[in-house]
Amino acid sequence: MPDEQLKLLKSVASTLETFSGVDSTSFGQDWVENYATVVRSFRASSLFLLFVLFAGGMMIVSNSIKNSLAQRREEIEIMELVGATAAKFALHIY
């Protein structure tokens, strides 16, 4: 989005320069370009942070499930000995 707005701003400035009586236009090009660079870097870093948080969340869920199964291993073994299938005791855990 900032890139599109920057292009639009440059386009408007060049169009204004074509009018008679206008020698040059100045809209703080350096400041606007630096601001667009900062916005792009924030967007990239936020996407990276989102990926890291998602991966961390998936690891937490995975470890919680493994921990739950490990804690109930004895119970699961007993249930299997008395004839429970995998689906029956999986429903019982949650």
Summarize, please.
Helices cover 81% and strands 0% of the residues. By secondary structure, it is mainly α.
Number of helices: 4
How far apart are the termini? Answer: 46 Å
Give the overall form.
rod-shaped
Based on CA atoms alone, the radius of gyration comes out at 30 Å
Query: Mean of residue pLDDT?
Result: 82
How would you sum up this structure, described in words?
The chain is mainly α and about 90 residues long. The chain is about 80% helix and about 0% strand. α1 runs antiparallel to α2.
For the structure shown, list the relevant keywords.
mainly alpha; 4 helices; rod-shaped; 94 residues
What's the topology here?
Blueprint: H1 2-17, H2 29-71, H3 73-81, H4 86-93
